[in-house]
Amino acid sequence: MAGTTVEVYDTTLRDGAQQEGMNLSVADKMAIAPLLDELGVGVIEGGWPGAVPKDTEFFALVNKELSFRHAQFAAFGMTRRAGASAGSDPQVRALLDSEAPIITLVAKSDIRHAERALRVSGDENLAMIEETVAFLVGEGRRVVLDAEHFFDGYRYDPEYAIRALLAGEAGGASTLCLCDTNGGMLPDDVTRIVTDVRARTTAQLGMHAHNDSGCAVANSMAAVAAGATHVQGCVNGYGERTGNADLVAVAANLEIKRGMIALKGDGLAESTRIAHTISEITNIAPFARQPYVGASAFAHKAGLHASAIKVDPDLYQHTQPELVGNDMRMLVSEMAGRASIELKGREMGFELSDQPDVLKRVMDRVKNAEAQGYTFDAADASFELLLRWELGQAPQYWQVESWRVRVSSAPGNPNDADAEAVIKLRAGGGQRFVTVGEGNGPVNALDHALRTALAGAYPEIGRFELTDFKVRIMDASHGTDAVTRVLITTVDTVTGMQWRTVGVGPNMVEASYEALTDSLFYGLLKAEATPNP
Amino acid sequence: MAGTTVEVYDTTLRDGAQQEGMNLSVADKMAIAPLLDELGVGVIEGGWPGAVPKDTEFFALVNKELSFRHAQFAAFGMTRRAGASAGSDPQVRALLDSEAPIITLVAKSDIRHAERALRVSGDENLAMIEETVAFLVGEGRRVVLDAEHFFDGYRYDPEYAIRALLAGEAGGASTLCLCDTNGGMLPDDVTRIVTDVRARTTAQLGMHAHNDSGCAVANSMAAVAAGATHVQGCVNGYGERTGNADLVAVAANLEIKRGMIALKGDGLAESTRIAHTISEITNIAPFARQPYVGASAFAHKAGLHASAIKVDPDLYQHTQPELVGNDMRMLVSEMAGRASIELKGREMGFELSDQPDVLKRVMDRVKNAEAQGYTFDAADASFELLLRWELGQAPQYWQVESWRVRVSSAPGNPNDADAEAVIKLRAGGGQRFVTVGEGNGPVNALDHALRTALAGAYPEIGRFELTDFKVRIMDASHGTDAVTRVLITTVDTVTGMQWRTVGVGPNMVEASYEALTDSLFYGLLKAEATPNP
């Protein structure tokens, strides 16, 4: 099996977009498609032109503005209506009009779905499949048949399910994709059924898995082991209910664990960055525990292991994180103990092994802070500041006297509001600054006021840009009384360096103020600004 | 295989707590343990008494204060030190002192780990295993041997890996648990290796899987199919890196898909509630796409399917959500189309099928709102209000003139802050209220001011309690300039009814104000308060 090529078919833009809370605009799809091409998938399914107006627009725009290096473009649609010719069906014609070289036709292969949902006879359904495929193939398109509910259908009536596939083959479909639409299969079911189908046709077989029993990745692997050479899935495992098969995990398993050929170019080595960029566009928070590309996927916390990892990192990871563009990380945490803090310090350029008293004080501060709700796992910069304070290696850049923020409804319109912040501080050799900042929210206003006050003394401030701002309510049982944790990501636009800081407090504005001031402080430190408080 | 009993061994409190960002206090563990017992797991592993002071305290407290209906309690620890007797090793003695009836001993079964991490010879490692097990069994405890890195070890040196297991068996271990510690196996690897081990010993075999290749659930199922009758895992799939096997998904697959006996009592039917309650305690946001128990696990959005689901719901779900205490949900979304909005309306008691113009206006408003960042997937109450406004079935309870919030640093201490809100509104037959509320943050202060103003006209307000408050920054690329979405969960403490509302705006306080006022409005509506604006 090593050396076999498996076609990776991405349906993030169509089936993935069915996920709860996801809502992709045409612009979002235009931004995601080139990333999928860069990832090296063989096929990008763009949507359902003709049925979804946004998708019709997207296909026209792709034809005009995008060209792909690796991927071919596919349009998704349905078989023709009952009792009419394929060529006269406007939905089928819209698939042709999309100009996509590949057309993926969803077809009923479970007799119950044909009879109850589509309300056609089993024979008419088979005719609909064969004729629609033949029509599109006659027009020069490659056709992939998505046999919907195939596995459930096979378990209910195996002969009918296979006849539906064979109707597609007879029409000239290149690929018969077996869909576990309800996602309930386990790998041994898939092995048994795909093995049977493999013996009944010579067409390329594909697998389309959903994760309802937690086995979408394993089911995709089982199908390939039984002879499928086409796998469908979505980046980040997006999709309706529990999601589709996570395409990066499947491709990484195929390539790294089985020596097969899946993604084109060096897409796999870029997959962590690409998966995260796509989650920025979809606005779905990335799942830290996601296999291969998750932020935690190669993060070690256990004190027991931390010391052993120093000896031999490869004994503690299932593969090298670089293969998927991810990194091994040591986490600073109460559970980690001295070994991790020592390692983390060394990563940052501080040798603590000969300073047991500092190590002890840092550990105590970390424990204490974590008990209050801080997390340094995700805020390296705040941890470095903590370490520097304990080492006496933190300069003073400014001194804040006080600050305040006001948010009020617009006159006459309680549904609109604006914000204003005032800050008083000393910087630049004791000079006092009283500045005001406006903003579309309290933290934004505070950010503006703080920057205005500091810009005179530290022009470097202008280089720092806040790129992410995350708010987490820590104790959900208390509603608006809860403790808030704010994580801020900042980038130095000159050096490209990026860092994260954390603030915690019962008051969201106060927590933001802490993360904000830490962030600017850290930026000045790394820009080697001369302290002049 | 149907009818076989599989022992479900929970390690949420030990291995699960290794997850990035998780930090369990003794009180958290005391709250989680009874939930695990209610779930019906056979064994609860509490931690590592003797090595982790918090765990020693937890075991003492469990012995004093808890009794379990279903579960036995297990202490986790290591084999004895090299070159000393088991009985003289303080770490081993601490395991006895914990009074746990089951002791789970982690042991090296990969020769490389014995030699490089533990720095002992292969033979000494085997002696450490056999003697420590024998000592604990002699003291009347059941011993589970956790053969760490077993699968990697087997692939490197199968004979040594199996000798490590047999040393445990010789010492009297009841269970030999094969650990995929680095989580890199695929199900066919597991099938092959467990089948071989099964032929070499008569002891009970167990499986401990991690999810690094996305196959933890499938690997656990493969091990059971090959003869294991003990599975380890964590609720919600918690754990280091990509997490441990999700114990509820494994148990549900065993029971529902394979007819085996896994959880005791009716734990499976309570698993959704229990999994969510545990995530409240761990403070790790639940993953909506989690198999079986996720909020999205039985949620349907596709317009294509929505109309067919009306015909026959069982054709569109892999199992009945009630079996795991979850619910089928129809999601309102731009992609869903008329059929879903009609169904959702019917769920709420509004018949829209004969009002196409209302249906159209509601669809337009939903589309428009979703484009701005609203989501009604997670905010049924806001959707019902939108529907009622379009139907002209929303009363007026009050009229707000204006509001404002001020947050300022404490005098002399810029690191502390407090908040104060003023609201001006009319309610109670045109009576004007000007009220002030203090709070530990701007939203909390606004909540207090609003309630004070409304309480006179609507005493029902006192029954409503905010139980969750979620803030989501929608466009991460803009930092503090981004659009904010606020979701608020409120409960009526008299009826127990719970509802969620959404607010969106560039200003977090403004978005919160919207969700807050919608929430109180909806509560009054459901409490059938008489409008008196």
Descriptive report:
2 copies of one chain form a homodimer. In chain A, 39% of the residues lie in helices and 21% in strands. Chain A is elongated and about 85 Å long. With 533 residues, chain A is an alpha/beta fold. In chain A, strands 1-2-3-4-5-6-7-8 form an 8-stranded parallel barrel, surrounded by 9 helices. Chain A has a 3-stranded antiparallel sheet with strand order 11-12-13, covered by helices on one side. In chain A, helix 8 runs parallel beside helix 9 (216-225). The interface between A and B is large, with 135 and 135 residues.
Outline the secondary-structure elements.
The structure is a homodimer of 533-residue chains.
Chain A: E1 7-10, H1 26-39, E2 43-47, H2 53-65, E3 72-78, H3 90-97, E4 102-108, H4 111-118, H5 122-138, E5 142-148, H6 150-156, H7 158-171, E6 175-180, H8 187-198, E7 204-209, H9 216-225, E8 230-233, H10 247-258, H11 271-282, E9 299-300, H12 303-311, E10 329-330, H13 337-347, H14 356-372, H15 380-391, E11 399-410, E12 413-427, E13 431-439, H16 442-455, E14 464-473, E15 484-492, E16 498-505, H17 508-526
Parallel strand pairs in A: 1-2, 1-8, 2-3, 3-4, 4-5, 5-6, 6-7, 7-8, 9-10
Antiparallel strand pairs in A: 11-12, 12-13, 14-15, 15-16
Helix pairs in contact in A: 1-2, 1-11, 5-7, 6-7, 8-9, 9-10, 12-13, 13-14, 14-15, 16-17
Principal-axes geometry of chain A comes out as elongated
CATH topology of the largest domain in chain A: TIM Barrel
Spans of at least 5 consecutive residues with low confidence of chain A? none
CATH class of the largest domain in chain A: Alpha Beta
**Separate helix tally of chain A:** 17
**Helix-and-strand structural type of chain A:** alpha/beta
Oligomeric state: homodimer
Largest interface: A-B, 135 and 135 residues
Using the CA coordinates, give the radius of gyration of chain A.
28 Å
Fraction of residues in helix of chain A? 25-40%
Number of strands of chain A: 16
The assigned CATH architecture of the largest domain in chain A is Alpha-Beta Barrel
Largest sheet of chain A: 8 strands, parallel, barrel
On the 0 to 100 scale, the average pLDDT of chain A is: 91
Going by CATH, what is the homologous superfamily of the largest domain in chain A? Aldolase class I
Strand order, sheet with most strands of chain A: 1-2-3-4-5-6-7-8
Strand content of chain A: 15-25%
Distance between the termini of chain A: 66 Å
Number of domains of chain A: 3
Organism (chains A, B): Demequina lignilytica
GO biological process, one term (chains A, B): isoleucine biosynthetic process
EC number (chains A, B): 2.3.3.21
Protein name (chains A, B): Citramalate synthase
